From TrEMBL:
Pfam families: DUF1189. The keyword Transmembrane helix applies. The chain crosses the membrane at residues 31-51, 71-103, 115-135, 141-161. It comes from Planococcus liqunii. The lineage of its organism: Bacteria, Bacillati, Bacillota, Bacilli, Bacillales. The keyword Heme does not apply. This is DUF1189 family protein. Keywords: Membrane, Transmembrane, Transmembrane helix. InterPro entries: DUF1189.
Amino acid sequence: MNLFQLFKASLMEPRKQAAVRIMSIGKILRYVFVLVLLMTIVSFAELAVGLGNTGNDTEGLLEFVEDIKWLLYPFAFIFLFVSTTLYHFVKISLFALVGLVFIQMKKRKGEYRHLWRTTALAVTIPTLLSFAFSFFDVPMWATFALGLLTIIYLHFATNYYPKQPPAKKKPA
């Protein structure tokens, strides 16, 4: 699957989200990094435009930023990318633990590494919605609802994991 197919599968195809558990981790990591990079570029563009549109109350700060703009922007972009990547990876890892609980409750076969790959796709829509909400004044309960949406996507995706074989009885 290419990156566009992974993105399409992440939108509303729990069967394909579960199927990525057998893909190489490299493709999934590339997908996560590209998603984070795109969000970082948009956030950085908002930051760059926002610095130019600040009010007249911060004239000294604006002059300082103008003097070091060549230094400020690359470091700001790198810091934004690294921090967003770290946050996204921690979020995926924590939701994968929730998915591991689902697997055990449903008596399905799967490991944490499989659930991490599935979660990387299941978290896409809530992440994009959260990113879009960050540009507006959205109440805190919306962030909580987006976390629940990720858990719901994981629940649906784990339904497509293979069932565990029945336990064999030991001969007496």
